[in-house]
Amino acid sequence: MAWVESIQRAIDYMEAHLLEPISLQDVAKQAHVSTFHFQRTFTILTDISVGEYIRRRRLTLAAQELMQTSIKVIDLAYKYGYDTPEAFAKAFRRQHGISPSESRKLSGMLTFYNRLTIQVQLKGADPMKYRIVEMEDFQVAGMKRSFSLTNDENIKEIPKWWDQVNNDGTDDQLFRLNNGPIKGVLGVCVDHKNDKQTIDYWVATAFNGDPPQELEQMNIPASRWAVFEARGPVPDAIQKLWKRIFTEWFPTSGYSHAGTPELEVYSSEDPASPDIYSEVWIPVK
Hints:
This protein is α+β, with helices and mostly antiparallel strands. Helices cover 42% and strands 21% of the residues.
């Protein structure tokens, strides 16, 4: 359960530094993983981003302090990391539904978010289908964009990009080009080792040869892959599968993430089909 313990260490670090500036990079160091992989794991496990967790906890503690002490709102705003009382009041109302002054008068309900504790549920009745594959390096061709990890930009913007490529014909072009060892259109996430604040994300396909001029090409290194099967409408089935991989499979499998690009594999079937087949490929060691 070392994997679970490492995530819990990172959560404990955030809790211990809620009154200080917290960088995602420093949090990830506590779990001994890259910034991107910690952010992704945390979001899959909790359904919220790291930044949102920190905001919720700070505003929960601020509300308690507001009701239990005579501290001035302006001092409370600065204490919990807000530049102005107005910014604090806006965030406070967004979470609690009332203003700080209304909270002090006990004139409304507050929203309380407790400190997180990671727990793993082991289930056997609903099996996961996966296989381990050893594969040589191969080429992909597609479109690449860089996304910032700051303020969870990657989480917000990557789905928007998928909407775009699904509507402008890019995915149809990639399906036609596909001639490599993996069939389908790929979402490829490349974690930058040197730049802790950005990732590259590709919408691509496995392709041998010279791609069209408008597409870029990348080599996927030789890897041992854990390949997981998903069945059901996209993206819901894939999102549920990622959660099961991190909550059920990784903690007990004996494998860890190898740190090289990971893949989501989509077929050309109707994405709303109740039985559409998709895959998640994770490089493991």
